Amino acid sequence: MRAPGGSTASRVLVLLEKIEQQNRATIDAVYAESRRITDMFEARFVKIELRLDALEIAVRKNSEDIRKNSEDIRKNSEDIVKLQQEVKRLAKILGADEKENAIQALDRRVRVLEERLGVVPPAA
Question: pTM to 2 decimals?
Answer without folding.
Answer: 0.47
